[in-house]
Amino acid sequence: RMTSAEVIDLAQQHLTPNYTRYPVCLVRGDGSWVWDAEGTRYLDFFPGWGCGILGHCPPRVVEAVREQIGQLIHVPNTWYTEPQALLGQALADRTGFGGVSFFCNSGTEAIEAAIKLARLNGKPKGRYKVVTMTDSFHGRTMGALSATAQPKYHAGVGPMLPGFTYAAYGDLAAAEAAVDSETAAILLEPIQGEGGINLPPAGYLEGLRELCDRHGLLLMFDEVQAGMGRTGKWFGHQHWAVRPDVFTLAKALAGGIAMGGIVATPEVGAKLVTGTHAATFGGNPVAARAALATIETIEDEGLLDRAVQVGERFRAHFLALKDRCPLVSDVRIKGTMIGLQLAVEGAPVVQKCLDRGLLINCTHQTVIRL
């Protein structure tokens, strides 16, 4: 096996420099732990940028993938497969409103599908615009990037695609002011992840639902980070009992295997007719089996309740820390979406934790995200 230094040198020669990487080469994971090439063990509090919701190499997912790879790896969506149909049913059963699914491979692809679906639904009325929120993050492809209302992500790759209007997150009046006769949908993360674990103020999501109903718009939730039980509900918006017309999933959907998708109400999803959209690898048997195993693990091991318990344990510790440490200015938690707002830059904290064998993330410059 190559040493970490050898891997890093090879990567720096042959890979594009678009990632900020720490000088660690990980080779193995088990549960909440990972090991580097030299055998150093790290506690991972940000597994796979949120994809590893069950930890590293969760047994049911590993077994499902092993079995499926030996049977059928990939066929196009020209044909039906049992795992994909069962996954669609499993998600519909957990939405509270049924729903139909389209599967792809990532969160940004899921957002692209949602944008397209918004325009397909708005087309008869000449509507195509989408209102999104400041401090949002929806992905890196050009449609999803244009929906992301953070100028730092637009730098050097503009102009953005037309048809997106931004409103301040949490400000219902701002959202209403952003709606015009060409607006087709409102898209937002019910709980902002990359923006700093920002929770919606009381009445905000309910107000957006009423606004969309009044103007005939789709309400679309980006559940890429909050979905699949991370907050203690299957989907983050369920804490507020607000039903979206469309919501997106990815990251944790398949327990670490690459997968994304959207779930839409049947009447809205019906607009994705033959020829309107596709994804070559979307909903492939391996990813679908992994997602089914993820759902099974969450239910059989009581992980929705555990997410609440873990969140409350961290809340108690961090609120106590905030009381005695002026560097901590706020604590924002929903289940296992945890944000520690610092009064200083967070990068040195991340580095110090790495030095001590703990992997964490800093977002928005000053928010420690777990």
Describe the 3D structure.
The protein is of the alpha/beta class. Helix content is 36%, strand content 18%. The protein contains twelve helices and 15 strands. The strands form three sheets. It has a seven-stranded mixed sheet, with helices on both faces. β2 (33-36) and β3 form a beta hairpin. α2 packs antiparallel against α10 and α3 packs across α10. The longest helix is centred in the C-terminal third of the chain and has 22 residues, at 303-324.
Q: Which stretches are poorly predicted, pLDDT < 50 over at least 5 residues?
A: none
Intertermini distance: 31 Å
Mean of residue pLDDT?
Answer: 97
| Arrangement of strands in the largest sheet | 4-10-9-8-7-5-6
> What is the SS-derived class?
alpha/beta
- Shape summary: globular
Estimate the strand proportion.
15-25%
Round the Cα radius of gyration to an integer and report it: 21 Å
Number of helices: 12
Task: Tell me how many strands there are.
Answer: 15
Q: Give a quick account of the main beta sheet: strands, pairing sense, barrel closure.
A: 7 strands, mixed
Order of helices and strands: HEEEHHEHEHHEHEHEEEHHHEEHEEE
Percent helix, as a range, is 25-40%
SSE layout and pairings?
Elements: H1 4-14, E1 26-30, E2 33-36, E3 41-44, H2 59-69, H3 82-95, E4 100-104, H4 107-122, E5 129-133, H5 142-147, H6 151-154, E6 164-167, H7 172-178, E7 183-188, H8 204-215, E8 218-222, E9 246-249, E10 260-264, H9 266-269, H10 285-300, H11 303-324, E11 328-334, E12 337-342, H12 347-355, E13 358-359, E14 361-363, E15 367-369
Parallel strand pairs: 3-13, 5-6, 5-7, 7-8, 8-9
Antiparallel strand pairs: 1-2, 2-3, 4-10, 9-10, 11-12, 12-15, 14-15
Helix pairs in contact: 2-10, 3-10
